[in-house]
Amino acid sequence: MKYDVAIIGAGVSGAAVARTLSRYNLKIALIDKEADVSFGTSKANSGIIHAGFHTGRKYLKSRLEIQGNLMFDELQRELGFPFRRCGVIVVAFEEEDLRHVQDLYRQGVDNGVIGIEICSRERILAVEPKLNPDVIGGLHAPNGGIIEPYRFVFSLVESARKNGVELHLNFRVKEAVRKSGYYEIIPERGQPVEAAYVINAAGIFADEISRIFRAESFKIIPRKGEEYLLDRMSPAFPNKVIFPVPSARSKGTLVIPTVEGTMMVGPTAVEIDDKEDTSTSSENLHMIFDFARRIVPSISQKDIITSFAGLRPALEGGDFYIDISEKAENFIQVAGIQSPGLTAAPAIGEYVKDLLKKLDCKLTEKKEYDPFIEKVIQMRDHTHFESDEIVRGNAVYGNIVCRCEKVSEGEIIEAVKRGHTTLDGVKFFTRTGMGRCQGGFCTYKAIRIIMRETGLTFDQVTKRGEGTEILKSHL
Amino acid sequence: MKEYFFDCAVIGGGAAGMAAALEVEKSGFRAVIVERENTLGGILLQCIHNGFGLHEFKEELSGPEYAGNFSEMIYASGVKVFLESTVMEIGEAQGKIHELYCYSAVYGVFTVKAKSVILAMGCRERNRGNIGIPGTRPAGIMTAGLAQRLVNIDGYIPGKEIVIVGSGDIGLIMARRMTWSGCKVHAVIEIQPYPSGITRNIVQCLEDFSIPLYLSHIVSSINGKDRIESVDVTPLRDGIADEEKTFRIGCDTLLLSVGLVPENELSRKAGIRLNPQGSGPFVDSYLMTSRDGIFACGNVLHVHDLVDFVTKESRTAGANAVKYLKSALSARQYKVVSGSNVRYVVPQKFNFEDVSQFYLRSMIVKNDAQIEVKINNHLIKSVKQNHVQPSEMISVSLKKEELAKVTSVNDPELEISII
Ligand SMILES: Cc1cc2nc3c(=O)[nH]c(=O)nc-3n(C[C@H](O)[C@H](O)[C@H](O)COP(=O)(O)OP(=O)(O)OC[C@H]3O[C@@H](n4cnc5c(N)ncnc54)[C@H](O)[C@@H]3O)c2cc1C
Ligand SMILES: Cc1cc2nc3c(=O)[nH]c(=O)nc-3n(C[C@H](O)[C@H](O)[C@H](O)COP(=O)(O)OP(=O)(O)OC[C@H]3O[C@@H](n4cnc5c(N)ncnc54)[C@H](O)[C@@H]3O)c2cc1C
Fold first, then answer.
1. pTM (global) more than 0.90
2. Superfamily of domain B127-258
């Protein structure tokens, strides 16, 4: 198969690039080694749309963060993913913290952060009543927000596919051969793909892809972040994303409301060697909760429903590395996309488009380009009266499969139709099994619907792709 | 939206819901059961082992047989049943009428309007997140109840090399079930120094098959990338992990049997007051919740180990709903408190006019224990119990005459303790 552009990695970076490029008359392949998109770092993060005051403009990541932040309202109108500008705050408990807050404020003003304000104790407590009353002041940026990161990626990819991008899943890039005018990209298993331009958006493995294409040599250092998700019934649910005063290495342990009404505490920031180590540890659990309780005292370990860890694909120097390769022809690096990668992603798409232009890739706009995708029905968003109408139209929406998150059979069928055929894929698309019972009641129902809709047998249904089968044998 | 009118609406068609609905219908009132699944019976349907009904039917039945007996009675009675219908919300009462919003692929979205409601939604299992087991997140980890459902109803086996965390009854029963299905159960790991399942199950499900039970041990890590490959197990010394003694057990499946929680999301959203100790609703001596005309029974009220007790309690709830419909619930309510070594007592109120039935759970393990019932420090009853432990529910009943000993005190408060 021959393409103009191949994008390696279907995380938020690759997906945003794919969608941006799908506006033009290009034949594009979006490639990922996993069974679904967004199964890398882009599914395991804090989901914050950062406000743009944490770092200065000298960093590329900072400039793209500021620009990306501004693009979310329009993207949401077009793609309908869960997103809310709930605002973010930084809280100070010591006099010294207040100095940092002022520095952040000045940086924010320089960066053009809209509505940023320094808050007195009274003001910060009014903005966020769940805070520890020992707080002495802080910073409020109402333009920060929260999204469901995987839903964002799913919708970017769906939009890209609607506009002609072809998705190759279970395609682990193993080798690349330079031919005249194009690359042959060879997977571990299956048919190769050919492309004139290649974009390396492989996250934690971007260094390996760069090596395979004989491009620049650099080292991605995985920086692990553990997070804990709390039940929507938790009394600690905040209005705002709450940051402590940041340290040099990370933004600290945060208290985060999610768009879907649960809440999170975390993440840690620890450099590790193993690129596949997403385990959590009990020391970190205790550290995170001790820390978080100092910020919001009503946070309790009793409300934990699950935990996870994500790996930030960090480069030395801490900045993004997005540039045309000087060693490999027609090869663009999108590497070192650590935080705020999610926020910056829409701007990364635009940035890469401009780099492609520099490489003389012809970009003419498609007449038939359609930025909108079809909204999915979510029973949890509707009143009983609206639900009545929906179920009259299609009875499968009346069968509630996941009771904790109010997900119907119709929504699962729709997820499968849109290509999410693993249990995790269905979970991230619909929220089935994401609530307090963590799939105790609905897993067998979801498996059954996936089998029926895909024709897979029981031992072919997986959690997240080959090797993660759920059922081994039959009685 | 379609509407249906009844005297009493029962949410959930397990052992509790069926017994309560039958009791209401027997007295000439119209009852309805709304049940999410396509069969009546609830959790009983997946409990294919024997051990149900010794009190109720005077013989040992399997779970499905016990459920079958009741569902036959339901279908022979006038109780209306909506299957494959989930109650999504208990609306605000309109005058004295409660409104349930129900969703179904068969009947559409509909409301059930009723003068009284009985909550019988059962319980759910605690999971990995609730107990915070660290490590990776591979395939092959599930709650024991889900595994029980997959094996016993759907006929699927989740794995071959099994480790079970927690010695709850479901876990113990699954240890035996998986062994019978040709799997190897390597160990049951329990954090407490005593098992959390009942003694009968320890003997019949573990000892008879030589499955090791590690008391005072925790699973300190889950290992494996795609599929679980092993767990690290660490002994506790005086409650603190003795990390040097950690050992590893290979497995491809980890089943969690780490406790049950009454399923009260509906109740909570309906503004019903819950008891933080047992996580069920607060109920008065009539098993009525903080909302007028809404009763609770079975596992949604507190987790039971014996279905016979569920049935008994639920008949009482049904009978009280009938009295409520007849405006005959009149007795004054007085406070019940948990005394020493008692985790919780249900109900949390008593009266002087009826026989009182209390269920409680111990916080301690003890032989030759004494259950003491006091009202404002007057001992009114003391029962000897050969053995108490947290996993075995204790039942105490008080006759009217026993209560009559102290009718004259001011502000009576009843306290139950384990000595
Ligand atoms: C704990 C944590 C919290 C964070 N919080 C935030 C936040 O609140 N806000 C924010 O803006 N950012 C946040 N970030 C950063 C953000 O998550 C990342 O910047 C972003 O997800 C990176 O996306 P990506 O597409 O570059 O990488 P990824 O999502 O990792 O995508 C790379 C893809 O490449 C694929 N791939 C790799 N190798 C191959 C191969 N050989 N062949 C084919 N495919 C391959 C992978 O399967 C993967 O899907 C957080 C990160 C972490 C870890
Ligand atoms: C695994 C297990 C093993 C056991 N083993 C034994 C034993 O060996 N011997 C013994 O005597 N006892 C045993 N017990 C105890 C006893 O069987 C149970 O306590 C009893 O069956 C519980 O009945 P219930 O009706 O309260 O709950 P359930 O049986 O759980 O019934 C609740 C019902 O409500 C429905 N429901 C819930 N929410 C809604 C809603 N919103 N809308 C509609 N329907 C809803 C559910 O689908 C379910 O059918 C066991 C219990 C368990 C969990």
1. yes
2. FAD/NAD(P)-binding domain (3.50.50.60)
Check residue B199 and give its pLDDT. Answer: 87
Q: What is the pLDDT of residues B343-386, one digit of tens each?
A: 999 999 999 888 889 999 999 999 999 999 999 989 999 999 99
Model ipTM value: 0.93
Say whether A395 and B106 touch across the interface (CB within 8 A).
yes
CATH of the domain at A421: 1.10.10.1100
Calpha distance A200→A11 (Å, rounded): 11
Q: Is A84 helix (H, G, I), strand (E, B) or coil?
A: strand
Q: How many domains does chain A have?
A: 3
Cα–Cα distance measured from residue A448 to residue A442, given in angstroms and rounded to the nearest whole number: 10
Alpha-carbon separation of residue B310 from B15, B53, B280, B298 (angstroms): 7, 11, 14, 5
pLDDT band at A131 (very low <50, low <70, confident <90, very high): very high
Please indicate, yes or no, whether residues A273 and A401 belong to a single structural domain of this protein: no
Task: Say how many Å lie between the CA of residue A195 and the centre of ligand 1.
Answer: 23
Which ligand is located closest to the Cα atom of residue B119?
Answer: 2
Same domain, A327 and A410: no
**pLDDT value, residue B279:** 80
Mean model confidence pLDDT for chain A: 95
Instruction: Looking at the structure, tell me whether residues A272 and A307 fall in a common domain.
Output: yes
- As a whole number of angstroms, the distance between CA B410 and CA A469 comes to 65
Domain boundaries, chain B: 2-124+261-330, 127-258, 337-418
Pick from A14, A34, A57: nearest CA to A352: A14
Which residue range forms the structural domain that includes residue A448? 379-454
User: How many C-beta neighbours within 10 Å does residue A291 have?
Assistant: 18
B226–chain A nearest CA distance, Å: 5
Q: Does residue A265 sit in the same domain as residue A165?
A: no
How do beta strands A28-31 and A2-8 pair? parallel
Ligand 2 centroid distance, CA of B15 (Å): 6
**pLDDT tens digit sequence for A371-400:** 999 999 999 999 999 999 999 999 999 999
Tell me: the pLDDT tens digits for B117-151? 999 999 999 988 888 899 999 999 999 999 999 99
Query: Which of A171, A215, A213 lies closest to A192 in space, CA to CA?
Result: A171
- To test the pocket of ligand 1, the residue of A342, A348, A352 to mutate (highest count of ligand atoms within 8 Å of its CB) is A342
Q: Does some domain include residue A468?
A: no
Average pLDDT over residues B57-66: 95
Q: Is the pLDDT of residue B271 over 90?
A: yes
Arithmetic mean of pLDDT over chain B: 94
What pLDDT, on the 0 to 100 scale, is given for residue B117?
98
Task: Determine the pLDDT at residue B408.
Answer: 74
Q: What is the CATH number of domain B2-124+261-330?
A: 3.50.50.60
Based on the domain organization, do A268 and A227 belong to the same domain? yes
Task: Let me know whether A266 and A137 are in one domain.
Answer: yes
**Pairwise CB contact (< 8 Å): A395 & B108:** yes
| Facing A409 at nearest CB: one of B105, B149, B222 | B105
CATH number of the CATH domain containing A139:
3.30.9.10
Return the pLDDT at A251. 63
Residue A475 falls inside a structural domain: no
